[in-house]
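Let us work through a complete example step by step.
Step 1: write down the sequence.
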Amino acid sequence: MVNTSKSKDLISTTINLLEEYFKEGDYMSKGLRGEGYHQLSNEINDNLKDLFLQSYKESYFWFDCSLATYKNTLPGRLMEIQEDQNPDKTEEELLLEDYRTFDQLTTKQRVLYFPEGKLASEDYDRLLNAEVRQTLDEARNKKKNHIQTKFREIGERISKDGDRYYREPLEVISSSTENIAPENEPRTPYKIALLKELGFFSLPAIKAMNKTNQFEVIKELIGGSTRAIKGNVNVLEPKSEENPLRYTSNEHIENVKNLIQKLQKQSK
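Step 2: predict the structure and record it as C-alpha cells.
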C-alpha cells in the first residue's frame, strides 16, 4: 500500500496555515496589519508547491494535482466510490464531475480537504503567487483537456449551459453555445498556440497594442475571423470567460512545445 503520510501532513499543515492567515486577514480588514501576514502567505505557497510534487510521488489525489497524478489515481478513486457509495458509478460519470470541478476551480472555491474528513479549508486562490498559480493553472487546463480527449475517443464531448455540464455527441451543435469559427479555419487554435509558445505576445511591439489591434496583426499573419482569433487568444488566460469547448488553443500547447523542441534539436 502506498504511504501517503507526507501528502496528508502537507494538506493538514496548509489548512492550519490558511486558518491562521485568514484570522490575520480579519485584522487587516479593520485597517490593522497582522503580524506574520506575508510570512504565512509564503509558507502556504511553499507548501502547495511541495504538495504538487509530493502528491505525484505518492499518487495522492487533490483538486490541484498534476495531470500525471490525476491519471494514476483515477482507477482507485472510481473503485473506492463504487465500493463505498455507488456500485453503478461509471468512469464517464466521474470524469464529467471532475471536469466540472476543474473548470470551476478559479471561479468557485479552491480548497483543500482534511485527509480524514470533509471539512474544507479557506479558499486559497487569491493567495497564490505567480509561480504557483502558473503551475496549478497549467495542470488544471491539462486535466480538462485530457478529460475532453477521453470523451472524444467515444465520439462525445462535454458542453456547458450556465452551471450545467453535460455530455453530447460530437456532431451536435448546442444552440446555447457561441458561433463556431468557419470551416476554413480549423488550424486557427493551433496557430494561436504556436504564436504563444514562440513568444509573440511578449514582444514589446505587441504588448504596446490594445487587444483589438493585436487581433488585427494576428489576422494579417494567419488569416481567419477576428472572433475566432479573439476567442483562441483570450482562452489562454487563466481566468478567461471564453468557452474552452469552442476555442481550443489550450489543447495544442503541448503539441507546439514538442514541435519547437524537435526543430531546435534538429538545428543543432
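Step 3: interpret the result. Residues 27-33, 172-184 have pLDDT under 50 and may be disordered.
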